[in-house]
Queue: 3 jobs
Job 1
Amino acid sequence: MKNPTSEIITIGDEILIGQTIDTNSAWIGERMSMIGIPVKRIISISDSSDEIRLALADSISRADVVLITGGLGPTNDDRTKSTLAEFFNSELIEDKTVLEDILQLLKVRNVPVSSLNRAQALVPHNCRVIRNPQGTAPCMWFEKDGKVVISMPGVPYEMISIMETSVLSLLKTHFKTPAILHKTIMTTGVPESKLATMLVDWEMALPGNFSIAYLPSPGMVRLRISGIGDSRTGLETEMSYLTESLVAIVKDYHFGYDEISLEEKIGQILSESHRSIATAESCTGGNIARLLTRIPGSSSYYKGSIVAYANEIKVKYLDVPELMLNQYGAVSQQVVEQMAKSCLLHFDTDFSVATSGIAGPEGGTIAKPVGTTWIAVASREGVFSQCFQFGEHRERNVVKASLAALNMLRIEVLKETISK
């Protein structure tokens, strides 16, 4: 028996014109993979009956499960429900349970009930209704020729609630699915091409039921190992061995697992070692501070920041001598190290991080092209700095510089923690 597969259809003109980003598909794809019904195709279509019929017929011809989001609102431009009724040779009838849910929800929200609201209690008579605890549009489950079609609201929190409370467990019961495991190894400070070269032999030795995916983003590459099999226990044993052997190869760039962010990892290290940090930023414009402080509980280790974008701020608040600026320039080892040392002193922290660079697109020279960035980490033990060349894209330069700074901090904190 072949393993079941799925496809996703997102309905909405707002998605096609770029007014709304389709975050639903990414969430659904991850959860469907975890239950052993991987998504093989995702398409977005307009709120058109013809488009819905064509897309649905096409997806049913390939996939065992078709998940539809969107087009279930109370307004006339939402045509999904009536089109589904026609597609499955059904008629719309009022579902008393759905109507009661709608009336109760609107009462709690102190919203008057309109005829459009009541119309949302109309559902195709041959569908299985799955209640929506977060909204007025119910989920509808259809079966045809061994295939399952599930229509859900497009509002993300409503869709997620329905999937988590009902749909995923129902699908696991309905289909015999294999055991599937994923493990993500987080790396930074190394390009995808270099990782691929390092892992050639490891990848060639992978068992046939395992695979690896390279998922790059600015300043970071995620390595996702995936395995499929009949026994979850057996998969877990193999996954543990493969993960350990991979990490041993990329250990210089590995910082965590399973989507943990660099700032989360640093927060854990600083909290566990009872150390504190402050930042002095120029080219990153406060982005490192933003990343560090987005982690709950960061007030226990993060003390503050000076965003010294202009040279006069570097002089006035970070004690950078004007002579140093004139002699070496703001983007230099001397200046960034002085920024880090003064930040450490002013905030009285265990560590500080400083950045100074040319984010672009202008301001570069032959000696210091756009993307040139100096980063320094200071502690009571001394100061360490490094020069990077990130390229010509301004926003990517800020992201890459921030991650590089955080990684330098992580390495230094771990080094001092181990030495003590």
Job 2
Amino acid sequence: MTLRHLRIFVTVCETGSATAAGEKLYIAQPSISLAISELEEYYGIKLFDRIAKRLYITEAGKHFLQYATHIVSLFEDMEKEVKNIDAIGVIRIGASITIGNYLLPDYVLSFKEVHPKMEVKVTIENSDKIQQLVLTNQIDLGLIEGIVHSTYIESKRFREDELVLICANNHPFAGAESINLSQLNQESFLMREAGSAGREIFEGMMTAKGIAISPSWESSSTQAIIRAVQANLGVSVLPYLLVKDALDRREISQFKIEGIQFKRNFCVIYHRNKFLTESAKNFIALCN
């Protein structure tokens, strides 16, 4: 098997069809199909199911794609590094919304002091999306909250954080030292979107305690949730860093549940097959 076979396979997965992959690589469609067939024959696995003239990647194909993506990427990185040894490099960083808002700017500034010629490209998304970008090699490193869901991802903890429960200043919970867990049963919850690490942690803990959370609001905008809480449309749970200013200005109130703390970790993540450059290792060290 050759690198050409792997590049064709990865491109077919990216584009969704042999025809589109051929157009992107300037290779005739029959040659694309032949390369895929040769891969399947060589490894003795079926990479795609062919149904109604469409390709659907198999479980074996998904497993193979994890390696193929990083082999092709590593070769391309080598080409750039060797051919442009003195060129300005690029490091691609992804961060969750909390980390991207409050921690990442300082990390990038510190990194640029050590690597002034490096370009830092940043993507801010929820933690689940950042993990997907790491798996598909669209970013080099991710900074996320909460739990890693793939065995292909390496994770290193660099900081602890806390989620806080918030309510309106005129809500019955405001000013209470703590409430009983059962009191949440009658509350409307205003939550971050599915895929948010904070929401996942909170819902997991509540489910374990027998409390089902069915949000009346869902939003990727923290400010929208804070304003809705301020208007007493419900209660919410958000990272302390994202609500600190509103709490300091006394626009909303914080409350606690008796005997429960919502601690979580911030982690640096990268694909286990990823070749980490010295600059990437330096960025990880800065976080720590």
Job 3
Amino acid sequence: MKIEYSIKLRRERLENCIIRFLRITGILFFIIMVAFPFYWMIVSSLRPLEEIVMNPANLGLDIGKIDFKAYYDVLFDHGFLRYISNSIYVSAITVALSLVLATVGGYAVTRLRFRGRAFMSYSILIIYMFPAIVLVIPLYVIFSYMGLRDSIHVLILVYLAQTLPVALYMLMSYFKTLPVEMEHAGLMDGCTRFGVIWRIIIPLSAPALASVALYTFMIAWNEFLFAFMFLDTPDKFTISRGVVQLAGSVHLSKQLVMAASVMVTIPILILFLFFERHLVRGMTAGAMKG
């Protein structure tokens, strides 16, 4: 019996070691697959143009030869300061409108009783049955006919239509987990429905609101198809539209395209790290004391 138990124990340890090895190997493999393109993009944007032309396959980076000229050219010579400000404006307005409308709408669907409530809660994601390429053509025709196509604010409206259903769905699911008794206590203390939302629902929903804000910002910041179809004036381009225009200029070096791509990616990474740090902290925000 002791020999059998020892053999079984060794076999379990061997299986655990193999599983752990495969898990670590898989994680490292996916990390390399995700990080390598970003590393190559950064290295290509910081290497001098002469080295890229002479040895394009070199993936090393000499710290003493780091060159930020590509970033300077992209920002000041190719109008990317304007593109970045346009993207910040579009993304910020989209996030603000999505959070306000999704918070009020999600609370109404989960807490209030009205006609069509069930239909609204079940059909809230129906817009995602249609891919963006199907919607862009009729929207292009409609906005062109109305003379509204080359407008940043129309782009915000389209992004809002894209992000609001998912934001509503996410907040609805979170609001259902919140205790109704706290809202009843607030109403008994004299709060209105909007007072309950402001003083109770929003503080308790900080993690969900942070997730919705990050998701909405990522969609508005990275979206290209609608920006490409609706915007014609370079002064109104978003940063993704500007990168594609820059990449289409055959007389420019790919070093500039890599620098512009880094500018698109870095803000999303910073925001994700910032929101990730505050997600757990927001879980207890607004909790009752006493």
